Amino acid sequence: MEQKTLYAEFTVKEGSEARVAEMMNELAQKVREEPGNILFLPYVREERPREYFVFEIYADEQAFQEHITADYGAVFNGELAEHIEGDASELTWLRPVE
Q: ABM domain location, by residue (predicted)?
């Protein structure tokens, strides 16, 4: 089966930096425990620390579906929406160079 690889990005509203960092650390711990998660790496842009980038790899489509339907993910996304610019994270799907 083909791995699912994506890059998510969002910008945190001014004043929400500490809360989002805390939320992201909590989420990362949970996602990394998912059996189908291969990699979950959140970063902030060094010169603009309100800009987040998350690189994620899942074993396959089923693993990704289990990830996006996890209860804690819904809680995270619900609260995150209050703290970011725009409606949601922007997702970019990636595939290996052939």
A: 4-98
